[in-house]
């Protein structure tokens, strides 16, 4: 499902995402352990905030052309993140997400950054058309919290 931001809203809020997931669960047969969040540009950037607040909802997070703060990433350590950035993006250059990715990895999270050569901001066709992304998504499941001191397993 690809819900769009409500027209009067300025950014995604956790309650919008929760409502979208609940709606899908009520009307379709979904596996709640395989709910993935992705977003492009402002949607990807706001997605970071949503996953930090409700990591228990998601099996993975794939932001495209996003920017993010490292603050609060420890809350989402169980959620694998595969970020995509255009190498020459003037709006969201790669460095604006790298700190958050480093902090996520330092908390024990699984993190991957793919820089697309000669690409700027709109990466959707280049990313969502990748078979390896869909294979990776299919392999992800929401993980239970590990026991204290237990390192997180790394997804394939």
What can you see in these coordinates?
With 156 residues, the protein is of the alpha/beta class. Helix content is 33%, strand content 14%. The chain has helices at 14-27, 42-53, 95-106, 124-128, 131-139; strands spanning 36-40, 60-64, 81-86, 111-116. The chain has a four-stranded parallel sheet. Strand 3, helix 3 (95-106) and strand 4 form a beta-alpha-beta unit. It is globular. The two termini are 24 Å apart. The model is unreliable at 146-150 (pLDDT under 50).
Topology:
Layout lengths: L13 H14 L8 E5 L1 H12 L6 E5 L16 E6 L8 H12 L4 E6 L7 H5 L2 H9 L17
Parallel strand pairs: 1-2, 2-3, 3-4
Please give the share of residues in helix. Answer: 25-40%
Calculate the mean pLDDT score and round it.
87
Strand order of the largest sheet: 1-2-3-4
Distance between the amino and carboxyl termini: 24 Å
Topology order in helix (H) and strand (E) letters: HEHEEHEHH
Shape: globular
Strand content: 5-15%
Rg on CA atoms, Å: 15 Å
Largest sheet composition: 4 strands, parallel
Number of distinct beta strands: 4
- The oligomeric state of the chains shown is single chain
Low-confidence parts: 146-150
What would you call the structural class? alpha/beta
Number of helices: 5
């Amino acid at each position: 499902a690809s819900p769009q931001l409500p027209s009067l809203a300025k950014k995604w809020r956790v309650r919008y995402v929760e409502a979208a997931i609940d709606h899908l669960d009520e009307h379709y047969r979904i596996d709640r352990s395989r709910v993935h969040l992705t977003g492009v540009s402002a949607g990807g950037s706001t997605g970071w905030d949503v996953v930090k607040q409700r990591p228990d909802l998601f099996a993975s997070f794939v932001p495209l052309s996003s920017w993010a703060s490292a603050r609060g990433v420890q809350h989402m350590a169980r959620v694998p993140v595969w970020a995509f950035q255009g190498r020459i993006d003037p709006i969201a250059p790669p460095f604006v997400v790298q700190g958050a990715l480093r902090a996520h990895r330092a908390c024990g999270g699984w993190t991957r950054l793919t820089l697309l050569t000669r690409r700027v901001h709109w990466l959707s066709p280049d990313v969502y058309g990748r078979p390896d992304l869909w294979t990776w998504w299919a392999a992800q499941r929401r993980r239970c919290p590990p026991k204290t001191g237990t390192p997180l397993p790394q997804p394939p």
